[in-house]
Amino acid sequence: MNCSSSSLDLSLKMDNKTNTTTSPSTTFQLSANEILAWCIGYATVDAFIIVGNTIAIVIFTKSKLLRKRTNYFLLTLSIADMLVGCVSLPMFIHHVSVMIDSNVSPLFNNIYLTLDIFTGFASIFALTIIALERLYAVALPNWHHTTLSSVYFVLIAVIWFLAGIFGILRMLFSYKYVIGDAFYNSTMAALFTSLVVICLAYICIAVKVRWRINEKTKKTIEKNRKLAVTLSIVTLIFVVTWLPFYLLNIVFRFCKPSNCPHKIDYNVVLFSKFLQYCNSFINPIIYSFKIPDFRVALLRLFGRNTLSRPSSTWISLKDTRKRSGNLRQENGNGTENGIFRKRIGSSETEA
């Protein structure tokens, strides 16, 4: 692997004869068995990504979940993850497999890296918008309820537009139209800015939910708190699965043989990339465990009767009707008893 041009080019370029990769700071060597094992592991993750996100997309589009506009962004995230499973990861598996006996085609390598950057940043920006939307819902609930759906569609377009910009930058860098420093600095700035925004958004949500004690909005606060916890888990997993790979990129960027004499096993690089791809199948699992409506729709998709509790709105409606019926019955009984007592009193008077 030659990383001298950019630290983001962890592209597994190898010499035909030695199967040895080099970088400015390290030298790696992988056996055919190790390469085969990694390919099997990546293929397993790819199968989970495709199955999980296919189910998620079907549930979001076929059920009533899209009535909640927040789920527009979750659907966008599932589509981005599906693209990872259908495009980026299969290309990466091929990328790793050809290390056994041949070089990676430069054209194939450039296409793969462009698509990998595009799908990766689509996920990053989707998670960023999700966090900001949740903060908006908690901090300004009245404004949030009156926000037009067109605003959500514009934000979804922004997600894909920005991801496309970074994909184009990667392609231009491949053909030397963009210098390495500009590409590296822009991608690192976008990644870490997104991470900071996501973390700050959820910290603000936690503070707002903790100190907001208006009884009239108690149910809304509880609902937002649960959803914020779910999305925080998604974000935490995103950080854990993506950060190692980009930290390695920083190491490759600034570490030179003169000041970084220690060698890094290339299995560490492949493991960091493995974690990154795992993020794309973990998200649907989180949905099924933490979002009740998603779990109900999932069970219905497979033809199972759900034993879930009715929604709070339906429970409130039933309770209201029950109380109204009891009140009418009590009033009716009271009226009948009053008439009966009046009749008895009049009879006694006449007697």
Automatic annotation (TrEMBL):
<dbReference type="GO" id="GO:0005886">
    <property type="term" value="C:plasma membrane"/>
</dbReference>
<keyword id="KW-1003">Cell membrane</keyword>
<dbReference type="Pfam" id="PF00001">
    <property type="entry name" value="7tm_1"/>
</dbReference>
<feature type="transmembrane region" description="Helical">
    <location>
        <begin position="72"/>
        <end position="93"/>
    </location>
</feature>
<feature type="transmembrane region" description="Helical">
    <location>
        <begin position="113"/>
        <end position="132"/>
    </location>
</feature>
<dbReference type="InterPro" id="IPR017452">
    <property type="entry name" value="GPCR_Rhodpsn_7TM"/>
</dbReference>
<dbReference type="GO" id="GO:0004930">
    <property type="term" value="F:G protein-coupled receptor activity"/>
</dbReference>
<feature type="domain" description="G-protein coupled receptors family 1 profile">
    <location>
        <begin position="52"/>
        <end position="287"/>
    </location>
</feature>
<keyword id="KW-0297">G-protein coupled receptor</keyword>
<feature type="transmembrane region" description="Helical">
    <location>
        <begin position="187"/>
        <end position="207"/>
    </location>
</feature>
<protein>
    <recommendedName>
        <fullName>G-protein coupled receptors family 1 profile domain-containing protein</fullName>
    </recommendedName>
</protein>
<keyword id="KW-1133">Transmembrane helix</keyword>
<feature type="transmembrane region" description="Helical">
    <location>
        <begin position="152"/>
        <end position="175"/>
    </location>
</feature>
<dbReference type="InterPro" id="IPR000276">
    <property type="entry name" value="GPCR_Rhodpsn"/>
</dbReference>
<keyword id="KW-0812">Transmembrane</keyword>
<keyword id="KW-0325">Glycoprotein</keyword>
<keyword id="KW-0675">Receptor</keyword>
<keyword id="KW-0807">Transducer</keyword>
<feature type="transmembrane region" description="Helical">
    <location>
        <begin position="35"/>
        <end position="60"/>
    </location>
</feature>
<keyword id="KW-0472">Membrane</keyword>
<feature type="transmembrane region" description="Helical">
    <location>
        <begin position="227"/>
        <end position="248"/>
    </location>
</feature>
